[in-house]
Design brief:
This protein is α/β, with parallel strands linked by helices. The chain folds into 3 domains: 174 residues, Rossmann fold (3-Layer(aba) Sandwich); 84 residues, Helicase, Ruva Protein, domain 3 (Orthogonal Bundle); 99 residues, Arc Repressor Mutant, subunit A (Orthogonal Bundle). The protein is 53% helix and 12% strand. A 5-stranded parallel sheet has the order 2-3-4-1-5, sandwiched between helices. Helix 2 packs parallel to helix 3. The protein binds adenosine-5'-triphosphate and magnesium ion.
Length: 390
């Protein structure tokens, strides 16, 4: 590839990567302030704290928590209160042992990955923290994955980490992140350490907020003047449907690449539209993978019922759902459950429902599938579901 041509628009690809943590998170000032308020006592009087960050996909939970930890660790070190932090992704590490191993490995890379009980690993962690005299902030990202596998004991242990200590400063604070409200997944004992006041909500971004986020990111990653205002507006409009900043940044990146491949010196609206079609299927895929099997079955049944029609009724879908459930070796659930699944899938933006009156005076709910060709959706779902079956 021609180096000159390939760098005409995108000046700094790293600024578009998921790992990049922006210096400042626009429109997350309130969440940042609240985190600072909750954690101020850690800096000032050395007590430990807990916080819970909640919000839907791409609302900046992970990025905000990382920015916050980087900032507070810097501040702590400046005022002689040494701190450190570890972010653990609990979707990738969804057992107590693997989370603990990650924490111990943060201090000791060579700590063996088997042969130690959770109690022994907790003890090792405590030793590392104490010998360094630090306060450690543990961020359990996507903590619902951990809790759903029944690991609330670990959260209990970590939230009471300092209890057996007599006097002295605290050594461990906890931040939990989840898309869903998860306090009800915690057992009462750990729940008592998570005060409701420490829940921080991340709403979906509104169109203006997305515009600012994309404009910021374009300025960081693109050469000056290569992403005109109208392309940025269009990306904001498109991604406002989900309020998802990750979706917006993915479109920005893809659109930039398409423009470069075409040898142009700036990004057009058409690049954005093409990028959207491409990104949508990537994002849809990850959303589908996140659904549990019953919700996947409902979506697959909808797609199969749809074929080339614009709308299908819930009755038609429910019939096909029962067949599809059998096909995948699952027990079809009753009518009420089916409705709950349907609502959940539509809440994820994967299908749309609308109610309308019919001539006999009854009301019928119609379902449609937005944005993605039904055939492509069916193929994608069958592939995903055969993978999870294995
Ligand atoms: N306010 C913001 N300013 C700048 N960039 C942002 C902002 N919010 C989110 N982003 C960027 O959007 C992307 C998604 O954000 P992040 O990963 O923090 O979302 P999330 O809430 O953790 O989503 P998920 O629930 O899927 O894990 C990241 O690349 C992040 O840098
Ligand atoms: Mg995240």
């Amino acid at each position: 590839m021609n180096q000159y041509r390939s760098s005409r628009i995108i000046r700094d690809l790293a600024k578009l990567s998921f790992d990049y943590v922006p210096e400042k998170l626009v429109h997350r000032e309130k969440q940042m302030d609240k985190l600072c308020m909750i954690f101020r006592p850690v800096l000032e009087s050395g007590v430990s704290q807990t916080a819970l960050l909640i919000g839907s996909v791409g609302t900046g939970k992970t990025a905000t928590s990382k920015r916050f930890c980087l900032d507070i660790v810097r501040e702590g070190n400046e005022i002689g209160r040494p701190m450190d932090f570890v972010v653990v992704n609990c979707r990738q590490r969804s057992t107590e042992a693997s989370v603990l191993l990650r924490l111990v490995n943060h201090f000791d890379e060579r700590f063996p990955d088997r042969g130690f009980s959770t109690m022994e690993m907790l003890r090792a962690l405590r030793k590392h923290i104490e010998s360094r005299g630090i306060h450690l902030i543990v961020v359990l990202d996507e903590a619902d994955a951990l809790l759903r596998r029944g690991a609330s004991d670990l959260i209990y242990q970590l939230s009471r980490f300092d209890e057996e200590k007599v006097g002295g400063r605290s050594s461990l604070s906890l931040i939990l992140i989840s898309q869903k409200y998860l306090l009800d997944l915690l057992d009462p004992a750990s729940l008592s350490t998570f005060r409701r006041a420490n829940v921080i909500k991340f709403d979906r971004y509104a169109v203006d907020e997305l515009r600012d986020i994309i404009a910021d990111r374009a300025e960081l990653a693109f050469s000056p003047g290569t992403a005109p205002d109208d392309t940025i507006d269009l990306i904001a409009d498109i991604s406002a449907e989900f309020g998802d900043a990750r979706f917006a940044i993915e479109i920005l990146e893809k659109a930039g690449m398409l423009a470069e491949e075409d040898g142009r010196s700036y990004v057009t609206a058409e690049d954005v539209r093409t990028a959207k079609a491409f990104t949508y299927s990537v994002v849809t895929r990850s959303r589908i993978e996140d659904l549990d099997i019953q919700r996947q079955l409902v979506l697959l049944a909808t797609a199969r019922a749809m074929r080339d029609r614009a709308y299908v009724t819930t009755g038609e879908v429910e019939k096909i759902y029962r067949v599809v459930a059998e096909e995948y070796g699952q027990r079809p659930r009753g009518h009420t459950q089916f409705w709950a699944y349907l609502r959940a899938v539509s809440g994820e933006g994967l299908l749309e429902t609308k109610v309308s009156g019919d001539p006999s005076g009854g009301r019928t709910t119609y379902i449609s599938i937005p944005d993605i060709p039904v055939k492509a959706l069916i193929d994608m779902m069958e592939e995903i579901m055969s993978e999870t079956e294995k």
